[in-house]
Structure formats: structure tokens, C-alpha cells
Design goal:
75 residues, mainly beta, 3-stranded antiparallel beta sheet, 1 helix
Length: 75
């Protein structure tokens, strides 16, 4: 995988929970099955911009997800 590749979120990583002020699990659950371009990488995680799943421009919300929770989409 590399920046710009399209990936599909296939599952929510184990142990991810919502907390006060951060709805990480809820946001990831809304991402499952959707396709996003890879925006970057950090410490083994894949960065995707997911603002549109919460009604904002995509660049307004980013998440970093484990590579084992996504699959590469053939272009």
C-alpha cells in the first residue's frame, strides 16, 4: 500500500472505544465498507480522511487505522 491507493475499511480494530469528546469507535463503524484514499502512514498505521462520514469536508477528520482492518481496492 502507498499514499493515494484506495482502501476499504473492513472492520473496527479491537479495543477501540468512544471517549468523552472523541467518537472514534462510532466513526470507524460508519467507515466499515466504505472506500477512502490513503493520505499517509504513521508508526505502522494508515491515515485516511473521514470527515464525510460525520457530515464535514473529508479533510476535517482523520483517523489512523491498523493495516489489518483495511483491504486494497483494485483500481
Amino acid at each position: 500500500m502507498k499514499e493515494g491507493d484506495l482502501i476499504r475499511v473492513t472492520k473496527v480494530p479491537d479495543g477501540v472505544q468512544d471517549s468523552e469528546g472523541f467518537k472514534t469507535r462510532s466513526t470507524l463503524e460508519r467507515c466499515v465498507g466504505r472506500v477512502f484514499p490513503i493520505m499517509g502512514f504513521h508508526e505502522g498505521f494508515v491515515q485516511i480522511d473521514v470527515g464525510e462520514v460525520v457530515g464535514r469536508p473529508s479533510y476535517m477528520e482523520s483517523i489512523w487505522i491498523e493495516p489489518g482492518c483495511v483491504e486494497l481496492v483494485n483500481s
